[in-house]
Design a protein that fits this description.
The chain is of the alpha/beta class. The protein contains 13 helices and ten strands. The protein has one domain: Luciferase-like domain (TIM Barrel, Alpha-Beta Barrel), CATH 3.20.20.30. The strands form two sheets. Strands 1, 2, 3, 6, 7, 8, 9 and 10 form an eight-stranded parallel beta sheet that branches. It has a two-stranded antiparallel ribbon with strand order 4-5. It starts with a helix and ends with a helix.
Length: 299
């Protein structure tokens, strides 16, 4: 919460939070309930927009619960909230014992979940009966006075089509121009494109490289990330990852140009909103680094 408050003070436009049950690795240590944190941040900030990056509304949650949670945060934040949605990772969703469907089935489920959520946001009592999602005679009594935007995580053609058709924006964690192009091709022209970039700042470059290893879970790509069930599996799967492997994906150290290049990769790929994740522990140092070194170079 204090990081969000400091970010708002320094002029950041928006803050994002992942919605996980487990962390990727045991070394991440914490994995709080995202919606409690969002409520606290909404109540203690006043300008900065808030986004889930991302929530899976189809297994661990029922879409009605996410519709209600998002509506409440939108009210608490005076319409500063965007609901980021995705088809999920087994890491978080298997805990409720409903199995782990194939990717194409998860996208069918996500499509129905988005439709059910948007229907509930329209007000009144509603029912929804799809192949995977059922809503029975439900009404949300706490709704914001403005529509809640939805951004949908995309990488493959099916998810990008879904984001373009049902969402107000697309989210990606790789600076791939192809993602933006395919999103636009499917009808996403004029809609938001949100990218996430990991940065590992520390005045000591060796320490920054060590911190970057916290992001080693992503080295093997999304197909692996979506399928492994527990942090111990990610620890095993990434046991051979070296610092030189991860520093190709995470900007490390005190050189501002290295971080600026990583951010610009997303801008040049066509993303119009970019969120930065500080991987290291020196948050005060990162905020100074951002203000004094990065902002002047990014203008």
């Amino acid at each position: 919460m204090s990081q969000a408050q400091r970010a708002e003070e320094l002029g950041f436009d928006f803050a994002v939070i992942s919605d996980h049950f487990h962390p990727w690795l045991d070394s991440h240590s914490d994995s709080p309930f995202a919606w409690s944190v969002l409520g606290a941040v909404a109540a203690t900030t006043s300008r900065m927009k808030l986004t889930t990056l991302v929530t899976c509304p189809i297994l661990r949650y029922h879409p009605t619960i996410i519709a209600q949670a998002a509506a409440t945060i939108a009210v608490m934040s005076d319409n500063r909230f965007t609901l980021g949605l995705g088809a999920g990772e087994r890491l978080n969703e298997h805990v409720v014992g409903r199995g782990w469907p194939a990717a194409d089935i998860r996208h069918e489920m996500l499509t129905e979940a988005v439709e059910a959520i948007q229907q509930l946001w329209s007000g009144g009592f509603d029912s929804y009966r799809g192949k995977h999602v059922t809503v029975e005679d439900a009404r949300l009594y706490t709704l914001p006075d403005q529509p809640i935007p939805i951004a949908i995580a995309g990488s493959g053609d099916q998810s990008l089509e879904l984001a373009a058709r049902l969402g107000d924006g697309m989210v990606a964690v790789e600076p791939e121009p192809e993602f933006v192009e395919r999103f636009r091709k499917h009808g996403g022209q004029g809609k938001r494109t949100i990218g996430q970039v990991a940065l590992s700042y520390d005045a000591d470059e060796a320490k920054a490289r060590q911190y970057a290893m916290r992001f080693k879970f992503g080295v093997h790509g999304w197909k692996v990330m979506a399928e492994l069930p527990n942090p111990v599996n990610f620890e095993a799967a990434t046991s051979t990852v070296r610092e030189s492997d991860i520093t190709e994906a995470v900007a490390c150290g005190p050189d501002p140009e290295v971080h600026v290049e990583a951010i610009r990769d997303y801008a040049e790929a066509g993303f119009d909103e970019i969120c930065v994740v500080q991987v290291g522990d020196d948050y005060d140092g990162f905020f100074r680094f951002w203000t004094d070194e990065l902002v002047p170079r990014l203008r």
